[in-house]
Amino acid sequence: MAFLGDAHSFMAVVGWCVLTVTVLLLCQACTVVWRSLQRVKLQEKVLPVPPGAHWLFGHTILGKELEKESLEWATEYKYAYLFKYGPGMTHCSVVHPEYVKKVFSSISDKGAFPYSVLRPWLGDGLLNSSGARWFRNRRLLTPGFHFEVLKPYIGLFSESTNVMLTKWAELGPGSSVDVFHHVSLMTLDSMLKCALGQNTDCQTSKTNNYISAVLELSDLTMQRLANLFHYALKDGLYFWLTSSGRRYKKARDSAHRYSETIIKERRETLDHPGSLGIQHGRKYLDFLDILLKAKDEDGDGLTNAEIRDEVDTFMFEGHDTTASGLSWTLYCLARHLGHQEKCRKEAQEVLQGKTEVTWDDLSSLRYITICIKESLRMYPPVAKVLRELKEPMTFYDGKTLPQGSTVFISISNLHYNPHVWENPKEFNPLRFAPENSKNRSPYAFLPFAAGQRNCIGQHFAMNELKTAVALILQRFSLTPDDTLPEPVPQYQLVTRAKPPGLFLKITPIQ
């Protein structure tokens, strides 16, 4: 009987413990909801809320019309507005240079979404890290983007572009090509050479496991972003239980093994003076060389895990965003043959038939440069940037957002804001002529973001874009494939075209 009494007492204690924990969790949840609702009330006092929001689902009920509506809201509200996901769930969408400037200069962090989706692959590289870790690594990586390091890369960009053009020539005049597919392989080819010193022939051979892994990870990441169920349960557990999740793990492990093997082998060469940067006949420093040589003020370098994260981040950001920028630039020039012909004449005058662009050639490609910039304005590779405020933020007009607010810098809507750009839907490269852009706010055009966390590789990307456009237009004429629907931008991690994709017809220049 004593035993039964002890068991009864024990169960009673367990019951009280469970009840207490449940009450505490409910109280905590209620506190979070209450604070969120209070924050939304403060936000609604200073910023307008566009019409059409459902009490439960907010503006998400607009579905396919959401992108069209958000562009109209940017026109109507000029500076910023509140986007509602549901009760107590909002973000501030910023669409004007004066507000954007304040956000980029504020004390804020990147929010969890969508960057958390990339963390299993990219770890704590510059894209995902924050605080002291980010500051240290950014400082250590900056020398890797000095113009003296970038100079030899122009020859590598030319080499990779010419491989793609050879493939195009074999297709025959008037062939229709999926531009993003071809360009993505080309930029990945360049990134492997510049980041890891690897010449993999990835444009002509699909047998490399690393190439397959990177392409698979990019595609699966995009798929995950488009599927709300892939965020279900803790840490997106539902996704990891699906076939896509299992494929992602396999591809991630394959990519990591490849990077780790190369890092280990390259680190071993540090024991041999003069060997760094000249393996296999290579006479330039690649990104991995820079990372291995980097030391902080205490003489400490990056660990192999940190280097792997930075290499993987550079591979992803460097090839996918540049591929987006180049694909849409070619599309814009195909749609505007007058501008395409001016670019072609400039390329022919500068290159004189050469198949390799040089560092000195880049500064002479002026019209090509402003056409690239106008394309990046209309189709920014990264259309939205997210920040979470660590303290209250007061804008130049006195309006204040509370601490904890989520702010989206809507780069796509900023670039189409008629209060900033005249006739924003018109392709007009002369906007970026020196005489027309000298009085424009530096926060009006942000294809590479701004502030401390701007894109560290923006000069790398622009050099590759100018090189590729010049070489392509010297050899090919581009026209739209009008048998297919007009390409529609799809704003995910990078700006792609919705299915069936972005197709252009290519014709060799005689």
TrEMBL record:
Keywords: Heme, Iron, Metal-binding
InterPro entries per the UniProt record, alphabetical: Cyt_P450, Cyt_P450_E_grp-I, Cyt_P450_sf, Cytochrome_P450_Monoox
Gene3D superfamilies associated with the record: Cytochrome P450
CDD domains linked: CYP4B_4F-like
One Gene Ontology term of the molecular function aspect: heme binding
Protein origin, superkingdom: Eukaryota
Protein name: CYP4F22 protein
